[in-house]
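User: quick one
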Amino acid sequence: MVLLIQILNAVQYGLLLFLLSSGLTLIFGIMGVINLAHGSFYMVGAYLAYWLARTTGSLWLALPLAVLIAFAIGLLLETAIFSRLYRRDHLYQVLLTFGLILIFEELRSIAFGDDVHGIAVPALLNFSIPLTDTLSYPVYRLFVTLVCLVIAGLMYFVIHKTRTGMRIRAGNSNREMAASLGVNMPLLFALVFASGVALAAFAGAIAAPISSVFPGMGSQILIICFVVVVIGGIGSINGALIASLAVGLADTLGKVIAAEYSAIAVYLVMAIILLWRPQGIANKA
Amino acid sequence: MPNITLTRAPLLVALVLLVLFPLVGSTFYLQLGAKIMIMAIFALSLDLLVGHAGMVSLGHAAYFGVAAYALALISPKYEAANLWLTLPLAVGAAALAALIVGAFVVRTGGVYFIMATLAFAQMIYAVFHDTKIAGGSDGIYITVRPDLSVAGFKPLNLESPSEFYYLALILLAMVFWFLNQLLHAPFGRALAGIRMNEQRMRSIGYPVFAYKLAAFVLAGALAGLAGYLAACQFGFVNPDILAWHQSGIVLMMIILGGMGRLHGAVIGAFAYVFLQEVLSTPAVVGVYAKHWQLPMGALIVAIVLVLPHGIGGFFDIAVRRYRFRQSEDAKDQP
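Assistant: Done. Structure below.
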């Protein structure tokens, strides 16, 4: 039973990582931009949810509002800043997005202070399913897992079954060719970027009642997402899904077996993958 | 070659000013100066990798931190450690860490290299942060600075701010000279070749992997030298010194000064630490001193968008324009 709980937690964490890393990997695959600020969007989502849930009094209202605001922020950032980065060296992309992290962290610090804040789980889902006499599983976590699954399914549908998705795939595999075939690349870039920001913010918002909101939460998850992208292969959504679940399992089970070394376990998985397939599991060398 | 005198003159002037500085500087400024020079060594080590070998590492603070931790762990508790013993050991530890990580990451390129260096650096961070081997998140203290006496003769007393300043200055000058020699030697030319066209270097028979790994290990060792000095200066080591923000900051320094130029790395370190001091001084910016990272972040964004070659590059272009105008004026003379 304890194992079942841990596996449920691992899947929930893994799917959450997938929401983040799918955006990260697509932004890199299509626009060639390495975005360190992606973790900041996770943080922005969580703090937006915290703030909106407090002002509106309902997380159900806060979630869609946070996603909309994040989408708008994404569009704004794309047109003002990121669109100038596409042809630049990775080094400058790293540096600029590093600067953005500093800005977001300080704005957070000015607006909300440096304390940890909790968000109440909505009353509707605030109960647990008893598994044995002493163990139970919180329904909200199941809800998060379910929502992540639905979104992953929606993403699969959009990317593989719609015309926009076809354009995204085309842009991902060959930018110049897609552009010369008449795909409106600037529009596509803006759309993908803002969607990635919205996804990251949604992940932060929906996880906030579980993880609470705290300074540095974006950087912490960003590094794990990088590990996911390195394992899964850049630009690969399928790779990101497999890698997210693998990292979720390694981290959660690592915490059970040897708590002090669980963070290291995740990186060891990455080291082994790098030796075996330096281009990630889903990409051909 | 008139260019040589033109580029060397400012360097010599800067060196003379730095040597004379302790005559006028107060203890606070001597400590700040030593800190800047330590960061300059750190920035130089990364410039070897990023600016000259074309390998963008986002985990360089790990080797800085490994050497700092090595000093903290091998120092005796209440007496001075021997510098001649601990310095090679600490730098060796950093080089070994770079060798192990490098064996994995140097196989990758481009954006994988960036992400993998970052992830491995975080792994080293997790080792020091999560486990008890070196005090965990609390860190450890080094109560007495290392001693560098040989057979009873003590050339510098590191407890004195001015003498510690001179040690940092001597080491900075040595690292600068060494890298300058190295980059003009065949090894440095080969690295430049790999940066510009790796495929071609491989096809004409260069062992590219070995060259890149050697550069990675050397950069790690020099970062370790800086980390050792930082641990001496602050007498305290905690996981923050190898967190990835440090790696970002040192990358910022070399861009700020202009990448791929050794003097650029030094200028960048000076500019960054100076800026940080100004932006975090309440007397200058008032209540916003606590939030100094906000203007710093905005500045980073602005520099990337507006000054693509850094402050150093900006001056280089200005100097070139000035020379061009001079030569045009000379032509106009009858």
